[in-house]
Amino acid sequence: MTAPDYGQTFALWHGGAQGQWRDYTRHAFVAGLGDGTLPRAAFLHYLTQDYVFLVHFARAWSLAVVKSETLEEMRTCAATVDALVNHEMALHIGVCAAHGIDEAALFQTAEAAPNLAYTRYVLDAGLQGDFLDLMAALAPCVMGYGEIGLHLAQTCTPDTPYKDWIDTYAAPDYQAVCKSVGAMIDDAVTQRIGSLATSPRAARLQQRFTTATQLEVGFWQMGLDA
Ligand SMILES: Cc1ncc(CN)c(N)n1
């Protein structure tokens, strides 16, 4: 699979997790969004869980602000927090409101185990490690949905009821987040370890990226199993 152009580091990580990445970006849940066969109940279960997921992901990106070493990194990480809580979540709030679930109820959603496992894994990567450990764990979330959005926008059936979801991640503003995060990660790698390919940290960072990708697969499966 060819990676979208979200930077050199992402391309290396993507290449190092080919099988897991395919399982994530071509999951049956994703196929159901594209061809419209995904049951509405499964989608709503996923979306309510995903709202809580985004709350904790915003916490993890806020930790990245704390772990930043340059003002440029702080700006990109703070902008990503803004994109999560003020833009991406608008989709969740709007769709759920149309189904009678208000934001207060969304915020109270009890986290399913795969959701809890994923978000706390990422937060722990940042608490235990440094900025790069955190970025390796965060990248599959940001870039994977960027890739899925682009893929579904090109291949979905025109009347899928999940067009709003697809459009959110294929949209230029979400794609711009993927590109700016990818560029920031490339700069952060260069500043901290020089070349990723020759760094003794490469294997550990790849492991974090691959584990987070596997946790994404578990998240889709949680939606299907609803
Ligand atoms: C589980 C998950 N992964 C990624 C994204 C895209 N920010 C998301 N909303 N939810």
Automatic annotation (TrEMBL):
Residue ranges constituting the Thiaminase-2/PQQC domain according to the UniProt record: 18-225
An annotated Gene Ontology molecular function: thiaminase activity
Cellular component terms (Gene Ontology): cytosol
Alphabetical list of Pfam families matching this protein: TENA_THI-4
Keywords per UniProt: Hydrolase, Thiamine biosynthesis
Family affiliation: Belongs to the TenA family.
Family matches, as NCBIfam families: salvage_TenA (TIGR04306)
Protein name in UniProt: Aminopyrimidine aminohydrolase
Origin species: Loktanella salsilacus
